[in-house]
Amino acid sequence: MRLRVALVAWALTCVAGPALAQQEPSSTADVFDRYSGRVVKIEVREAGSAAKAVTGSGFLVSDRGHLITNYHVISKLIHDPERYVAVAITEAGQTVPVRVLALDVVHDLAVIQGEVLVGSHFTLTEIAVAQGRRLYSMGHPYELGLTIAEGTFNGMLEHTRYERIHFTGPINPGMSGGPTITAGGEVVGINVATAGNEVSFLVPVRRALRLMEEVQAPGYRTPDDLLPLVQHQIDQHQEAYLGPLLAGDYDTVTMGPYRVPSKLAPYFNCWGDTTTDDDAPYSLVDHQCGTDDYIFISSDMESGVVRLWHRLLEGDQLNRFRFYSLYSDDFQMADRWFAGNEDEVTRFTCEDRTVRTSHLTLKAVFCVRGYRKLQGLYDAVIKAAVLGGTDVGLETSLVLSGVSFENALDIMARYLEALEWIR
Fold first, then answer.
1. I need a surface site. Which of 106, 327, 399, 401 has the fewest CB within 10 A?
2. Mean per-residue pLDDT, 276-297
3. Predicted confidence band at 239 (pLDDT cuts at 50, 70, 90)?
4. Pairing label, strands 165-168, 109-113
5. Which of 100-114, 168-182, 242-256 has the lowest mean pLDDT?
6. Is pLDDT at 256 greater than 70 in this prediction?
């Protein structure tokens, strides 16, 4: 009897198994079916020709047509509102004009609205997510249509100034501004960037929730010109991220006979290398530090980039004249440190002089360029070389982006003052 029952069970498994497997719903397919109608494609188009300039994604968060997307998706519209328009394209192919209501430039978010967009929407709320939980990212990559990608929640990034979720899953260009959700449709974050190899990043949903609360507050009115709001938010943020740099209490490292600033703030990453050649009568030691993240302003403007570089040149096998010639040739200023569009930024203006700090005498070159549409913001570079050595020398440089002129001068003065001769 037992054998007969077992054989019957085996037979049912063999016969019914494949059919049952085909009928079992796919979790990913189910998530897509339930929530794809809430995700749209965002296009920024030239107003005259209607040619696409930028494509991205967004998602509905209210029954009044409010959508969340990334600021960088619609930034061209903010900088040139006469030249560009934006539309949302639904899954059904409906094209709806949208307008920008609010921005959070620091966290790369925007609220836009297409008033005739109707249907179901996501409800924004803060949720706790355990590491390893399966998530689903949605968006419009590479003009390929609406796509869903499975991935994993891997916590918050640690070494960053801006809150970011580490999402292990593919987020490709065009998916920016789309939602990453749980199987139950809870928004965990907004697609914002990728480092490739399924290392992707999300803006936590609470940032979008705060922006929506601002838009829905009684009496809220969208500014007629949003560009001053961009500048205001960047100016306010400088107080936070430049604080450690303005304090001047830097970590230091020793390079030959010098002590040099290294990790200027907790959010810096540093690395170094030594170049030696048995046939060369000199050696080079490099030390670099910088920020891994930044605030997107436009395709040619950023804020929050801070990079430093030191190079120690030792040539005790060279006479003083050959050493000086090598040291001078190595001290070359690069033509460009940032991308540049002359409609948005001025050309770099440079000034060189001899600088005496409490510890050293240096030859220094200071270069700066201004942002045309965001008055009072600059990119600044200083490069300096210690003078007086006959067989050892130190070059250093510091790069800042999207800062006030006063902050640039203050930080660079503190930076040079932190260089010391210790022998």
1. 399
2. 84
3. confident
4. unpaired
5. 242-256
6. yes
The percent of residues in the chain predicted with pLDDT above 70, rounded, is: 91
More confident site: 319 or 49:
49
Span 111-140, average pLDDT: 94
Give the confidence band of 278 by pLDDT, cuts at 50, 70, 90.
low
Tokens representing residue 258 in the block: 């010098």
pTM of the predicted protein model: 0.86
Higher local confidence (pLDDT), 203 or 17: 203
The total of other beta-carbon atoms located within 10 Å of residue 256's CB is: 18
Distance CA 98, CA 45 (A): 12
Structure tokens at 419: 């260089």
CA distance 207 to 189: 9
Q: Please enumerate in sequence order all residues whose Cβ is within 8 A of that of 367, keeping only pairs 6 or more positions apart, or say none.
A: 333, 337, 348, 349, 350, 351, 380, 381, 382
The pLDDT of 86-111, averaged and rounded, is 96
**How far, in Å, CA of 176 to CA of 207, rounded?**
15
Per-residue pLDDT, averaged over 287-306, amounts to: 89
Query: Do the Cβ atoms of 269 and 289 come closer than 8 Å?
Result: yes
Q: What is the 3-state secondary structure (H, E, C) of the chain?
A: CHHHHHHHHHHHHHHHHHHHHHHCCCHHHHHHHHHHHHEEEEEEEECCCCCEEEEEEEEECCCCCEEEECHHHHHHHHHCCCCEEEEEECCCCCEEEEEEEEEECCCCEEEEECCCCCCCCCCCCCCCCCCCCEEEEEECHHHCCCEEEEEEEEEECCCCCCCCEEEECCCCCCCCCCEEECCCCCEEEEEEEEEECCEEEEEEHHHHHHHHHHHHCCCCCCCCCCHHHHHHHHHHHHHHHCHHHHHCCCCEEEECCEEEECCCCCCEEEEEEEECCCCCCCEEEEEEEEECCCEEEECCEEECCEEEEEEEEECCCCCHHHHHHHHHHHCCCCCCCCCCCCCCECCCEEEEEEEECCCCEEEEEEEEEEECCCCCCEEEEEEEEECCCCCEEEEEEEEEEEECHHHHHHHHHHHHHCCEECC
CB 376 within 8 A of CB 404: yes
For the stretch 212-220, contacts whose Cβ atoms lie closer than 8 Å and that sit 24 or more positions apart, written own/partner, are 212/61, 212/62, 212/66, 212/68, 212/111, 212/124, 214/102, 215/66, 215/101, 215/102, 215/111, 216/62, 220/102
Rounded Cα gap, residues 192 and 108, in angstroms: 8
